[in-house]
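[stage:ingest] chain + small molecule (S-adenosylmethionine)
[stage:ingest] validated
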Amino acid sequence: MLSTKDIYDANASRWARSERVLLSDFTARPRVIEALGPLDGRHVLDLGCGEGYVARLAVDAGAASVHGVDASPEMVRAACDAAQTYPSTALSFEAADAVGTNRFPRASYDRIMAVFLFNYLTRADMKTVMRTARERLAPGGRFVFTVPHPCFAYMRAPAAPFYFETNGADYFSAVDRTLEGRIWRRDGADVPVRCVHKTLSDYFDALAEAGFVALPRVVELAVTVEHLALDADFFGPLRGYPLHVLFSVELP
Ligand SMILES: C[S@@+](CC[C@H](N)C(=O)[O-])C[C@H]1O[C@@H](n2cnc3c(N)ncnc32)[C@H](O)[C@@H]1O
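[stage:predict] done
[stage:export] tokens:
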């Protein structure tokens, strides 16, 4: 099985984008920016930042700085290239494993996001990263993350524009197994994606174990009437399915 780093190094050019292209650029990422709340002057840590698309959106929305971390050096290279048109203090990126990364200053980020990172991590590694997020968030800070909806792979047969293959394992026995999938861009290209499966309750348990005591806000993300009005051929096959879940949790 190819490593996640190898997959993203090989596909960095297909992920690089300056406008909404991927299905999830419409169905998830705008909702992440919304969930981060007012960003003016805030300092943000982006775990699993990829080629920096969401980090740039956060700076465009007013964030003072976003520091991105990603396991793929090629994705980080693309992020640094795209950051060249931004003020030098606004965006910084490093190639590193988000699991067990402890060198970020403690209690110093107003917002931490992990946009489709946890679907690459086992349940144990996800807990480690959530603990890192908990420790690095400033008081009153907010942690926002998105993952593929845990039920999605079990509701829809593999087909464009988004799928994961379950390979016969059921919802509970598949925990920590890697489901391979693909997600499409509106221009017809697609990229490989993975989901190390977890149940819905695994996310709540991991947040609690990491020390997030407040109830998270949970949003099940789906195709909307606006998406269908924009491009019914592209979004139509996913109408009515829960595609992703967004969690947002705050520190006191
Ligand atoms: C689906 S992409 C999302 C990228 C970006 N967050 C976005 O929304 O455009 C997942 C990213 O997670 C990164 N990733 C996977 N496992 C990681 C790990 N253990 N540490 C850091 N990054 C990781 C991959 O290299 C990839 O860039």
